[in-house]
Write a sequence for this structure.
């Protein structure tokens, strides 16, 4: 009887030591696994934060048509286009005015020729008056008319010469104005083409940048999904601790059962402390890796 | 034997989708509350991390007694271990269903146990699902998304 009680007492002490040791090991592994879980959480949090910041920075200025940068570029482009069109219109108006001036100069020249023709007729009339004066033995009337006509003709000739000189000078200036206008038009057109090219280039670059931003953000989303997926994989692996802890504590259940059976065999009544791991069944904690993770919905 | 042929989800380890449910970080968190009941702090943490990454708010209880005291109308779903001290998961489920307020509250058992008799008992008691540990986080999240949709 004494030997039996000693055996049962040894079994009880064995259980106490075993439970204490298992709990110590479980506590250590549990602490490490919780720490690993916190690291996993931190990785995901940092990734979330970083990608949210990336989205804020990239999507803000260029990510869409209504962004600040997009609006600024569009405004500047519109301004350059309007300015270029305005200068082009001014040059065209200038060309039209030069053409009108040229036409007016030609009219002046034509008018001067007509004046010259009329002056020639006046000179003829003056000569005729002088002839009539000589025929009428020096008629004072015809003599006076002849003198007045001659002076008028000279005055007209002098004025017409001034007009002709001016018309000639203007005829020489107009082609120069036309050349200058052509040069100006060429410069403006060159500037307009260059400005359009540059605007197109800027808009193309902005479009490329927008595509790149979109692609980068999509890559970031994929990276985040990958991080979360890997985090889930890590969480799945970290569950070994709970399975191990349950498995180790279940050994106590077996020893308790062996103690109860031994006491029965020896016919001894003894107080058997409750098992360390409570379970609805006495089945072994065995995880079939093929079925682990299986989800059944009813 | 751990065979339960009906209602099974796909088990692809690499898959991020489940029966058409795409698993991605939720950009607009629903903040639905999920009560996770397990005596293991590591399991509570791992379930909590998986669900919080998917946009759920996670509450914790350490056993059936603790859970009964924490269930309220704001809880959208329970994820419950079976083997726990004081009150195991099946007892908690049966007690919960005895209260008319919680008859429709979705409860999924998360356990290392896989015996058909236990699964059947849980099903009869009103469990909506049974997940065998160690769980796959993406499948767990998909199950929660389906049951709380």
């Amino acid at each position: 009887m004494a030997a039996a009680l000693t055996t049962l007492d040894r079994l009880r002490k064995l259980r106490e030591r075993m439970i204490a040791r298992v709990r110590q090991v479980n506590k250590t592994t549990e602490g490490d696994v919780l720490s690993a879980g916190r690291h996993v959480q931190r990785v995901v949090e940092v990734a979330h934060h970083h990608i949210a910041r990336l989205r804020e920075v990239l999507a803000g200025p260029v990510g869409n048509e209504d962004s600040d940068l997009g609006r600024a570029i569009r405004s500047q482009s519109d301004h350059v286009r309007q300015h270029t069109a305005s200068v082009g219109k001014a040059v065209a108006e200038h060309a039209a005015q030069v053409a009108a001036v040229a036409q007016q100069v030609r009219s002046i020249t034509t008018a001067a020729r007509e004046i010259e023709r009329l002056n020639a007729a006046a000179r003829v009339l003056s000569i005729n008056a002088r002839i009539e004066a000589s025929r009428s033995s020096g008629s004072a009337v015809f003599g006076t008319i002849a003198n007045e006509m001659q002076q008028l003709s000279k005055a007209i000739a002098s004025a017409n010469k001034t007009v002709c000189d001016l018309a000639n000078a203007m005829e020489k200036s107009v082609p120069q104005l036309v050349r200058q206008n052509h040069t100006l038009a060429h410069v403006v057109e060159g500037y307009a083409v260059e400005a359009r090219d540059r605007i197109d280039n800027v808009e193309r670059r902005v479009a490329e940048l927008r595509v790149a931003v979109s692609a980068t953000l999509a890559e970031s989303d994929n990276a985040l999904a990958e991080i979360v997926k890997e985090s889930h994989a890590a969480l799945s692996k970290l569950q070994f601790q709970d399975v191990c802890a349950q498995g180790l504590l279940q050994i106590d259940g077996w020893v308790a059962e062996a103690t109860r059976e031994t006491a029965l065999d020896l016919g001894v009544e003894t107080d058997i402390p409750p098992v360390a791991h409570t379970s609805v069944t006495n089945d072994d904690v065995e995880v079939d890796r093929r079925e682990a993770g299986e989800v059944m919905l009813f | 034997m751990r065979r339960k042929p009906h209602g099974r989800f796909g088990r692809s380890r690499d898959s991020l989708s489940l029966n058409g449910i795409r698993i991605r970080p939720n950009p607009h968190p629903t903040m639905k509350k999920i009560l996770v009941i397990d005596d293991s702090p590591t399991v509570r943490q791992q379930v909590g991390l998986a669900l919080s990454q998917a946009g759920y708010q996670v509450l914790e209880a350490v056993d059936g007694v603790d859970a009964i005291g924490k269930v309220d109308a704001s809880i959208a779903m329970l994820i419950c271990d079976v083997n726990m001290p004081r009150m195991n998961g099946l007892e908690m489920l049966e007690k919960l269903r005895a209260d008319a307020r919680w008859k429709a509250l979705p409860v999924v058992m998360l356990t290392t146990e896989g015996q058909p008799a236990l699964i059947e008992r849980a099903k009869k008691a009103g469990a909506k699902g049974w997940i065998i540990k160690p769980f796959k986080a993406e499948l767990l999240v998909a199950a929660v998304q389906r049951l709380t949709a």
In short: The beta strands of chain B are 17-18, 21-22, 33-37, 57-61, 75-80, 107-111, 129-132. Chain B has one domain: 29-148.
